[in-house]
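Ligand: flavin-adenine dinucleotide. Inputs:
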Amino acid sequence: MKQRPVEAEREHEVAARDHGVRLIKDAPVAALLGDREGRVRRVTWENGETETDCVVLATGIRPRVQLAEQAGIQLGATGAIAVSDRMETSEFAVYAAGDCAEAMHLVSERAVYFPLGTTANKQGRVAGDNAAGGRSRFAGIVGTAAVKVFSLELARTGLSLAQATEAGLRARAATVHAAEHARYLGGKDIIVKVVADQASGRLLGAQMVGAEGVAKRIDVFATALQARMTVEQVGQLDLSYAPPFSTVWDPVLIAAQEMLRELRR
Ligand SMILES: Cc1cc2nc3c(=O)[nH]c(=O)nc-3n(C[C@H](O)[C@H](O)[C@H](O)COP(=O)(O)OP(=O)(O)OC[C@H]3O[C@@H](n4cnc5c(N)ncnc54)[C@H](O)[C@@H]3O)c2cc1C
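Predicted complex:
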């Protein structure tokens, strides 16, 4: 196991730079300047500007709830439709599921807006079953997501340290760098950050970044979160090992054990 003070968040900058992408952060866009044909050619911000031939507006996502509002259906604090675990809205026999609806976060125990296909599919099945007279319940979410940035995998589940603190928990975090599989077979480091509750030792969240083995490994943490496991329990999980797939101590186990040491310090 190697530990370095490099923050996981920086890894994607390195991957982006390797692919010719320059990241300019903390620079709110001041203007998009176009040519005579109306095509955007330059982007300016407070201290600089750059040429461009393409602008992507990534402004986040809002639930489309006008129809529900007009029908008098109750919205939650997030602005999405408030639903029960049977996907019932405030209106009798009207169900909501997917990107228009809230979901119960099993770690923060708050209704959240976390619109993903994984959630939409499960909620849709529950809503459909109940609308047809069934008795299905949606278990809730732990906030699991994965993306690939060029050759780099990034994944998260549960709460970040900031989210856990904001939720009123006394949370701590630990970060490790560990080989994804045996180094003599080309295994490279992945970075695993674990968040846990100081008082109970309960796992609260995890984030990972690395060239491979990240997106699916996060599912171990997601399962542990749903089972309300402590980091001590996660550190003892019987995970598979063979040199092409892992090290004898999988990075998940190493990270959980480091988190446990951190909690005991
Ligand atoms: C680019 C992109 C990538 C994504 N990648 C992922 C991913 O990797 N993993 C993941 O988990 N999630 C991903 N998502 C999110 C995922 O696609 C959504 O969470 C999911 O599709 C939501 O399902 P939904 O059924 O609630 O809504 P939608 O899939 O948006 O379906 C709503 C449907 O309702 C129709 N509709 C709208 N208004 C009306 C109307 N008035 N009358 C009739 N029909 C109407 C729409 O045309 C649409 O077909 C991604 C989303 C995007 C945009």
